[in-house]
Amino acid sequence: MMLIVYIFLLYVIYLMPTFFYDRYVFIRIDVPSEVYGKLMFADINIADVFMLLVLFYMLARYRTVRVTNGLLITTLVSIFGFALLFLNGYDVFVYIDSFVYLARCIVFFVITSYIFSEKNNISYVVKHLLIISVIIALVSVMAHYYMGYVDVNRWGQVVEGRVNALGMGVNQAAEFFAMIFLIVFSSIVSEDKDSFIVKNNPRLFLATVMLLSIIMVLISGSRRVLVLLIAFVLLVYFLKHKGIRFRYVLLWTLLVFSVLYYVVDLGSVIWVLQRFSDNVTIDRITKFLINAEMGLDIYELDGRYDMYNSVVAVLKENSFGVGNSTWAIQDQIGKHGFGSHAHNIILQFYLMYGVFFIFLGYWPYMAIRKRSMHTFIKYPFVFFFVSQMFGYSLWNLKIMFFIILMCVLIESNDHSYEE
């Protein structure tokens, strides 16, 4: 019964369009007037109420609270961030977005810990996550190709042709589906104990998941995710299949691109990419390379350079960080440029938690170091943190819950699902 309720919760979270979080709420929390285009949805909505009901049900059944080292570390770091926010003069009862997010994350973490503590539950949860990804992908692809999809982001900017996947955000949608792809791909090519994904799912279904995931990355317009996904696919395959044939393929591939880039010219690479310029992601990569070839400002199409300059200016004024509120950080960055996040997880975490953010390195450290860690968790998790060097996606609830799910798996000592 608990597993059914939890899986239903996942469907509610992932299939509910994001605008529900903003329009259909039980308690409205006003955004400070100086914040332009809120990132965090702090309003209490139907998903929050449902999660609390599920938590109370599980507490009544187990009569214990599951607290792990990772949950304790993350909570303590967050509390320091709230203290930093207060010391910097912000009203913690107004800039309350991160407090609401922390409460949501703790509730979801505890619920997921209960679910994963029971035999075989992980296998069922992963299967339904794959099903959810297929549903989201099909809806998004049909919206993109049959309804002339045009996304308008929270700042009122038109992002034509870049799929938002039920409100995840274009880059966040790309990261989500890249991780889904890596879950399946790493399970297929590996020979370790996580083969339950292959055993418990038809091959046609897994192929469909991988194909739709690639399509979603391509129509998201996210350049960094596409490039990183290709790199991680090569990495996973190379680590799992160390045969000499693949090494030759890899070397020849690098040689061909080296010849195109250094011997011929950058225009040859651009010419190849332009054959696929109908795709929004490849088209954005092509424009980036054309700017580089023409000697123009390669940051003109991206904006991260100006954003990083704004973050540096904020750090000069707030050497110890701003505090645990994305709204407050948006306020500070907005004084020097465009009010958004830092577009880098290290910079963002420093602004939120000060030097104490280093303790959050516990999660990637455990994912990489833990010998019993399964491939289908390790590679998507590491992929996400590498991607976050060029962006920041944890403001998005759907991505946050997906990462929390993997964090619970990282700390889980129950491997009964291997059988």
Automatic annotation (TrEMBL):
Gene Ontology annotations for the cellular component aspect, listed alphabetically: membrane
Name assigned to this protein: O-antigen ligase-related domain-containing protein
PANTHER family according to UniProt: O-ANTIGEN LIGASE, TEICHURONIC ACID BIOSYNTHESIS PROTEIN TUAE
Residue span(s) of domain O-antigen ligase-related: 209-356
Domain of life, per lineage: Bacteria
Chief localization: membrane
Compartmental location: Membrane
UniProt organism field: Prosthecochloris aestuarii (strain DSM 271 / SK 413)
Membrane topology: Multi-pass membrane protein
Keywords, in A-Z order: Membrane, Transmembrane, Transmembrane helix
Residue spans crossing the bilayer: 7-27, 39-60, 67-87, 99-117, 129-149, 169-189, 201-219, 225-241, 248-273, 345-365, 377-395
